[in-house]
Amino acid sequence: MRIIMLGAPGAGKGTQAKKIAEKYGIPHISTGDIFRANIKNGTELGKKAKTYMDQGLLVPDELTCDLVVDRIQQPDAQKGYVLDGFPRTIPQAECLTDALNKLNSKIDYAIDVDVPDENIVNRMSGRRACLKCGATYHIVYAAPKAEGVCDVCGEPLVLRDDDKPETVSKRLKVYHEQTQPLIDYYTGQGVLKTVDGTRNLDEVFQSITEILGE
Ligand code: AMP
After folding, report:
1. 150/130 Cα distance (integer angstroms)
2. Of 1, 37, 202, 203, which residue has the fewest beta carbons closer than 10 angstroms?
3. What is the whole-number distance in angstroms between the Cα of residue 104 and the centre of ligand 1?
4. 23-77: per-residue pLDDT in tens?
């Protein structure tokens, strides 16, 4: 099963993507996580990506697409994958479609987790992340067991630079201009499914499993 998650930053698509990956036994491929791992390891890619990410801007398409096309050809992705945060622009979507055509493959579902802008800003200010293992939490909707501490590895949790309020409004603007057109793109491919992302995470996941099947 090959799945793309669409939705504004903070719509909860990362959380849902992880749950899908776990239930269906396919890898969760998050370009944001890949960039953050590169930043942490001080790679050239990480250095380039950081300058864009810290400003709430998208990393250029040419740095992103090759990375994903390579990742989806790894052995663990042969039965499928869930892409989270990619594609984010029409050129990225076209690049993915071309690569999949060459591989005789296709996307089965593009799931749009739909949340209005006014809910997003409120949600993002409550996000907390573990920079060590990449786990994410929300102080109200998905709180860690102990306040401010990662359940998985015990590291202190932080508000990521790109989740700070000033960056969030910029990211929403970028989302509407560059990523929302993908809804029409995947509607055109006949694979778009929309779920109401304003409900709690179990309800959203229930709707997603109804779409994907048991
Ligand atoms: P995310 O964790 O998916 O919210 O991504 C965090 C940041 O990483 C974004 O605001 C972008 O700066 C960058 N990023 C992640 N995925 C992409 C992508 N597909 N294209 C361009 N930039 C991306």
Report:
1. 6
2. 202
3. 27
4. 999 999 999 999 999 998 999 999 999 999 988 889 999 889 989 999 999 999 9
d(CA 5, CA 24): 15
pTM, 2 dp: 0.88
Q: Is the dihedral of CA 197, 181, 90, 35 positive or negative?
A: negative
Backbone angles phi, psi at 141, to 5 degrees: -90, -20
d(CA 95, CA 117): 28
Domains and CATH numbers, the chain: 2-116+179-212 (3.40.50.300)
59 lines ligand 1 (CB under 6 A): yes
Percent of the chain with pLDDT over 70: 100
Q: How far does the centroid of ligand 1 lie from the alpha carbon of residue 9, in Å?
A: 9
Q: What is the pLDDT of residue 214?
A: 73
* Most ligand 1 atoms within 8 A of CB, residue of 13, 31, 71, 95 to mutate: 31
